[in-house]
Specification:
By secondary structure, this protein is of the alpha/beta class. The chain folds into two domains: about 240 residues, Dihydropteroate synthase-like (TIM Barrel, Alpha-Beta Barrel), CATH 3.20.20.20; about 90 residues, Sulfite Reductase Hemoprotein, domain 1. Helix content is about 40%, strand content about 20%. The protein is built from eleven helices and 15 strands. The strands form three sheets. Strands 8-7-6-5-4-3-10-9 form an eight-stranded parallel sheet. Strands 11-12-13-14-15 form a five-stranded mixed sheet. α2 links the parallel β4 and β5. α2 packs parallel to α3 and α7 packs parallel to α8.
Length: about 350
């Protein structure tokens, strides 16, 4: 059992973050926020995959204005991603945004910061301080210390600005494209403050490489009890980000939504098309929400024995297979009939 770091709890819309709340999974739309229909369509697609929070890029006043209509129909809490222009933050708050991602030290004059913070307080809008290792302020970038320490110093400066304005509904992220820098930055910050932490490895890459980097970075921190909400950043569909996020959390026993899928590697004992079968089972059950453990094993040696903890499983034979349940074989079928019957049993018994 992972012992989680104690953090203050904030709330974004109906989603609690920090404290004893489940670690939430979020993503970011890649639509033009001004295209209200396309943005809402993607938000709904992400919700169907289990996404709990959604961030939108606010590039200009038109995007900020679109928040009003998006908010009316969005099934998920909305976070506005804003850089530099305090007026966009104000417009988004006025239009009903649930949270902001903005660095208070980067929006100009102190009076501008006060306007944003005061309005956020009145409307109960939390603020995420988002530090990126590749875009630090010059005063920190020039320091002769490790990058992780520079990132933490930058974050502490932004935190102080908010605290000086009596604002404490704060969430923090410290992202780098370097996995070890990201891990160290979060470790350092976890010792300094009790605000909830948003985890992510930024610019992680395309599907396979990005998932590996994110799994190593986020998985290490989560296993140490650090982290209250996550986003897996991929150069891919946001839907894949959400799927990967849940896989990381499930592998650590932190969330149990959907299928926990296990399958063995191929070897010389395998007499069935295991790779094809495993992929088809996983695809057919990808939207199955009940938290079952499903196994697809290559042979009787690794079947009901090694996977006896699985709720349901397949063990391959010579052009045939065995369906088992909690380690007990319940059916033996030809390979061509195995998949459909296996899925039918799972769905029939778990309606």
């Amino acid at each position: 059992m992972i012992k989680r770091r104690k953090s203050k709890q904030i709330q974004i819309g109906n989603v609690k973050i920090g404290g004893d709340a489940p670690i939430s999974v979020q993503s970011m739309t890649n639509t033009d926020t001004r295209d209200i229909k396309a943005t809402l369509r993607q938000i709904n697609e992400l919700k169907d995959q289990g996404c709990e929070l959604i961030r939108l890029a606010i590039l200009n006043p038109d995007a900020a204005e679109a928040i009003k209509e998006i908010k009316k129909s969005s099934p998920l809490p909305l976070i506005a991603d804003i850089h530099f222009d305090y007026r966009l933050a104000i417009k988004c708050i006025e239009n009903g945004i649930d949270a902001l991602r903005i660095n208070p030290g980067n929006i100009g004059k102190e009076e501008h910061t006060k306007k944003v913070v005061n309005l956020a307080k009145i409307n109960n809008v939390p603020i995420r301080i988002g530090i990126n290792g590749g875009s630090l302020e010059k005063e920190f970038a020039m320091l002769d210390i490790p990058l992780a320490e520079k990132m933490v110093k930058s974050a502490m400066r932004h935190i102080k600005i908010l605290e000086d304005n009596n604002f404490d509904k704060i969430k923090i992220s410290l992202k780098s494209s370097d996995v070890m820098t990201t891990i160290e930055a979060y470790r350092l910050m976890a010792e300094k403050v009790d605000y909830p932490l948003h985890l992510g490895v930024t610019e992680a890459g395309t599907y396979t490489g990005g998932i590996v980097k994110s799994a190593v970075g986020l998985g290490t921190l989560l296993a140490e009890g650090i982290g209250d909400t996550i986003r897996v950043s991929l150069t891919d569909s946001p839907i894949e980000e959400v799927k990967a996020g849940y896989l990381i959390l499930k592998s650590l026993g932190l969330r149990q939504r959907g299928i926990n899928f296990i399958s063995c590697p191929t070897c010389g004992r395998t007499q069935i098309d295991l790779i094809k079968l495993a992929k088809e089972v996983e695809k057919r059950l990808e939207n199955f929400e009940k938290p079952l453990t499903i196994a697809v094993m290559g042979c009787a040696v690794n079947g009901p024995g090694e996977a006896k903890h699985a709720d349901y499983g397949i063990a391959g034979g010579i052009n045939e297979g065995y369906i088992f349940k909690k380690g007990e074989i319940i059916k033996r079928l030809p390979e061509e009939k195995l998949l459909d019957e296996f899925i039918n049993i799972i769905q029939t018994e778990n309606i």
